[in-house]
Specification:
- With about 425 residues, the chain is an all-alpha fold.
- It is built from five helices and no strands.
- α2 runs parallel beside α4 and α3 runs antiparallel to α4.
- The two termini are about 125 Å apart.
- The relative contact order is 0.09.
């Protein structure tokens, strides 16, 4: 078998023999000077290595001291920075808490104003219904009393005032609800900011409590990498500043709105009370006026009825007088008829005949005068009857008006009371 080299091709016999001869030769001998030089080089190399080691030890000690001091200084500086950060976070946390307390207070005040607005708005409905019912009832007045008088004018004005107040209170209530919503939005932002500040403060408190001997300290891979949504200190301050400014703005708006609501409630209450009293005064004046008119009509009616009675007596007297004249005229005519039958020359137009004819003519004329007077008296009586009927109808109209104004409307208006809210 031909031998092979360890990593090469197979060796031929000649080459193998030469190699073996070389290996079997004695090692070369060194010169004493070479030995001496070698020893000296060993000593020099050792001394050099020792010096290098000593320098390294000194450098290491200096580095250890430097790094220890640097680490302690840096750690102390970090501790101070954490302490400063804690104070800064506490400051902004206190600012946020103050603004939160203020916005919560103003929201509660607005909620109170909202309740007052709702009550005031609700209290306007009944007076408006009553004013409208009064206007509707007064449409049932009859005849000449169906007049566009002062009462109706004041009632219409009252309805307009109430409708205007309802519209104004409704708009103000909507504005209040919107302001409450904005306040709650600002409150939410403050609460979220405060929550984050509280968490950050807890974390910094934890960091401040850590020391080199704290049990749970550990290596954290990638801790020094700035990843995530980090913000600059300026942006951090601006964020809380914006929340505080928004809260301040809504607080100021709430204060202004509260003053406005208070003024509106006061003004509308005064306007409604003033107009309500104007209507009541107009009703009282109208009722007095109608009662006076009714009293005058009743006086006239009594006078007409007295006059009617007198006229009826007069007519009865006239009729009796006419009836009483029938006997004398019949007697005179009978006498004339009888004397017309006198014979021959006895049929004389004597004083008796003359007087009888004159009597008949006189009585007839008087009867005609009596009948004419009777006819006039009967005409006057009819006029009095018509006047009496007219007065009675007018009195009924006044009674109807009084019932509507005094009984229906004024009694209904007694329940109207403008409350203060």
């Amino acid at each position: 078998m031909v031998p092979r080299s360890k990593n090469g091709p197979a060796l031929y016999p000649e080459t193998f023999q030469k190699t073996m001869a070389r290996l079997l030769q004695a090692p070369p001998k060194f010169h004493p000077s070479e030995w001496d030089i070698a020893n000296k080089m060993q000593c020099a190399s050792t001394e050099s290595q020792k010096s290098r080691s000593e320098r390294m030890i000194a450098e290491s000690r200096r580095l250890l001291d430097e790094t220890e001091k640097t680490t302690q200084k840096t750690q102390s500086d970090v501790n101070k920075k954490i302490e400063q950060r804690q104070e800064e976070v506490k400051f902004w946390k206190q600012e946020l808490e103050n603004k939160l307390e203020q916005i919560v207070h103003e929201t509660e005040v607005l909620l109170t104003f909202k309740i007052r607005l709702e009550k005031s708005l609700e209290s306007c409905k009944e007076p408006l219904v009553i004013a409208q019912k009064c206007l509707l009832n007064r449409q049932r007045r009859a005849g000449i009393d169906l007049v566009h008088d002062e009462v109706e004018q004041e009632l219409v004005k009252e309805a307009e005032v109430l409708q205007g107040v309802i519209a104004l209170l409704g708009r103000t209530l909507e504005q209040t609800n919107e302001q409450i919503r904005l306040n709650r939005s600002a409150k939410y932002n403050l609460e979220m900011d405060l929550k984050d500040k509280f968490t950050a403060l807890m974390i910094d408190d934890y960091c401040a409590s850590l020391t080199n001997n704290t049990p749970d300290i550990r290596y954290a891979d990638n801790a020094v990498k700035i990843e995530g949504d980090f913000v600059s200190p300026e942006d951090w301050i601006d964020f809380s500043n914006i929340n505080i400014e928004k809260a301040d703005k809504q607080r100021n708006n709430s204060l202004a709105l509260g003053a406005l609501i208070d003024g509106i409630l006061s003004q509308t209450r005064n306007d409604m009370r003033k107009q309500c009293e104007m209507v009541n005064v107009a009703f009282r004046n109208k009722v007095k006026e109608v009662k006076d008119a009714k009293h005058k009509l009743e006086t006239l009616l009594a006078m007409v009825m007295d006059e009617t009675a007198s006229q009826e007596k007069n007519i009865a007297a006239l009729k009796k007088a006419i009836a009483d004249k029938e006997g004398p005229v019949k007697v005179a005519q009978t006498r004339l008829e009888a004397r017309n039958h006198r014979p021959n020359v006895e049929l004389c137009y004597d004083t008796v005949q003359y007087r009888l004819i004159s009597e008949v003519q006189e009585i007839t004329k008087n009867m005609q005068r009596l009948k004419s007077t009777l006819a006039q008296a009967e005409t006057v009586l009819k006029g009095l009857s018509r006047r009496q009927l007219s007065l009675e109808e007018e009195i009924q109209v006044k009674e109807n008006t009084l019932y509507i104004d005094e009984v229906l409307c004024m009694q209904m208006r007694e329940s109207v009371y403008i409350n203060s809210f």
